[in-house]
Design goal:
Number of helices: 10
Radius of gyration: 20 Å
Largest sheet: 8 strands, antiparallel
Distance between the termini: 46 Å
Order of helices and strands: EEEEEEEHHEHHHHHHHEEH
CATH superfamily of the largest domain: Jelly Rolls
CATH architecture of the largest domain: Sandwich
CATH topology of the largest domain: Jelly Rolls
CATH class of the largest domain: Mainly Beta
Number of domains: 2
Strand content: 15-25%
Number of strands: 10
Helix content: 40-55%
Amino acid sequence: MNRNHDYEFIKHIKGLGLHAYFVTIDQRIQHWHGEIEVLYVLQGSIWLSLDTENILLSQGDIFVVNHFEIHSLRQTGEGNLLFVIQFTPTFCKRYFSDLQYIRFSDRHLRHNQQDSRWSAVRQVLLDVIRTFADSKPNFQFLLMALLNTLVFTLLSELPYKITAQKEIDSYESNLDRLNRILLYIHNNAAYKITLEDLARREGLSTFYLSHFIRKHLGISYQKYLAQVRLSLAANMLSTTNKSVGSIAIESGFSDIKYLNRHFLETYGCRPAEYRLKNKKTDPPAISVFIGSSRELSLTNEVLKKLIEELTP
């Protein structure tokens, strides 16, 4: 697989196979990566989409995303702050090689249901945040101890199945094809592109390709193309001073009317209102294909205050 473009690239803490960070999400349309991802909603709420399922993650909720699992994230009507841990499942290959074959299920841990699973996982996540806040020398050792504790807790508390290597190979092969298709869509979304164009490029029938896209993304080709164009428009609205009319054309919409309709359906406001609410002085720190989120750098003082608020 082409490691430059096939899925989201995760910047790890050097040598640890681990990335932990705070982030606010605007929208990150369908993407995947080779890391297991744990999302902890610290403030606000967010929509998570997996296949055809839309899941509302409320403040305090925790969710585990399997590696190579296609997912998307979208803001709700309120702001959000998330703590995210991503780690490669091969970090423990020498003593627990099965982690790369494990797929967790029933992994939405809700804070308001007095779930012992939520309490156990949340405690480890708080310890990781404390480790960053304390900034002790040689903290990498403590982080790896906590990562092992986190994996042990997930394996102890969440149901899972072990997939066969043949199934994983087939899945990655499908993702390789999907990656080519999505890259073509993203690179040409501003132009007129059809399902027939894509089918010819892949040597497939339009019927097969239509079902392939719906199966893996959970939505139709036309809806996905509209999402890409909408994300392009949203990004230009928040980071440029271009007119709404120019943005509509540059993002692939035939006119402002269609741009307005999609903004109302997705964000509940018109493009001009979206610009007022989301104007940024600097470009987003993270971009996954199209869509954005902002990775945040919090001071130790802010971290410690946050820990106090999160600690019962």
